[in-house]
Amino acid sequence: MPSRGLAAEFVGRVRVIAKLAVPITMARAGMLVLIMVDTAMTGHASSTELAFYGLGHAVHMVCLLIGIGMLVGTAVLCAQAVGAGALAECGVIWRVATLQALALGVLFALLALAGTRIYLGLGQDRALAEGAGGVLIILNLGLPGQLVFAAAILFLESVGRPGPGLIIMIAANLLNIGLNWLLIGGQFGLGAEGAAWATTLVRWLIAAAAVIYIFAMSDAARYNVAGPMHEGWPIGRKLRRLGYPLGLAQGLESGAFSTLTLLAGYLGIHAVGAFQIVMNLVAFCYMGAIGVGTATAVHVGIAIGRQDPRQMALSGWAGLFTIALLMAALAVIMAIFPGYLGRAFTRDPALLAIVVPTLLVAAATLISDGAQGVLMGALRGAGDVWVPSALHLCAFLLVMVPAAGGLAISAGLGTPGLMLGTFCGVTLAAILLASRFHMIAKRPIKRL
After folding, report:
1. Average pLDDT of 265-270?
2. In whole angstroms, what is the distance from residue 61 CA to residue 59 CA?
3. Where are the domains of the chain?
4. Binning pLDDT at 50, 70 and 90, where does residue 2 land?
5. Cβ-based neighbour number of residue 337 at 10 Å
6. Containing H/E element for 186?
7. DSSP three-state, residue 346
8. Where does 315-363 show beta strands of DSSP type E?
9. How many of the other CB atoms lie within 10 Å of CB of 420?
10. In this predicted structure, what is the pLDDT of residue 430?
11. For position 283, what pLDDT does the model report?
12. C-alpha–C-alpha distance, residues 310 and 387, integer Å
């Protein structure tokens, strides 16, 4: 009977995590669909422009994910406040996070001005470096807006309102398609830079929409979204204390994957375009891990706020079980239909000849990749951030990148070798993070 009761409780945890994860996943997928649509429409316009966009986007994603990592503490602190019944703290947390989002976005926009020099310094061909540098500058101009939107939806998700972020992203993607049609090859014919301008304009609009919604909520006063900034400085310090390791972890992971794109650049212009297509599809699947990981972090945080170690542990393992099922289904689809998936982005036979075998290897990475993403969410919900960041460093920079480079270039496997190296990295990360969560779940818990 006790084991049957535990099983029922575990299934209940899976259900509540899945219920929150579905709209979060769809909203996160909406963010990525902006990039996927840019990639597909640019790829159908020109393989060369696709290479410019892919290389520019690789460095841009490092900046974006570092910024989002710096803000993830918003969800952790808000969830723990909700669990403790301190709802008025949530609005202060959100406003402090918004100010930090703006500051980070402006910093990254300024750093992007050196984009072309960065690519030349990394040994890329001058034409490729100049095209990618222009794309990077334009994409990073939209980062302040994207990060403000991220802070807003992290706040909304932690108080159990993921729906508005989803609705905003649906509208954003419809607008992005129209802008791409005008700017990539329509009346303006800007190619990859046109796709970047479309995404940047949309990102500022979604930031404005999310902020307006929060201030207009019927119970905005309950969450103190416009009242006194009690404990603003201490909350800012907590956000930064959580944000530094989380931003580092996100940056390390994104930097490692961006390094793979740079390695693809050494394999040739078709390899860059093909690898960008594959990474878009892998990243789209990974949105499931982002959604389940965020939902897991929220429920782990609420359990900690309530001082309930049993629910904290069950939430973490239930999140891992949920993502394993989802990623297994997506892996089967990717393995069965690689040609159909590739043709959604390009009709170039040279690109498809690289995309299809690379997707077959990518399918094998999905379960491990999803598992490490959700486990990272469970650990950050528990406030454990520095050790998981170090584990990411070991798995991605010390294992994945060297393995990918050796298999792709030294062993001559090309882009499938890049994905085989990725499999090594994400599998090691999943094992290390699972061991860490098992250890944390046995310790006494306390609110941050």
Report:
1. 82
2. 5
3. 2-440
4. low
5. 12
6. none
7. coil
8. none
9. 21
10. 96
11. 83
12. 22
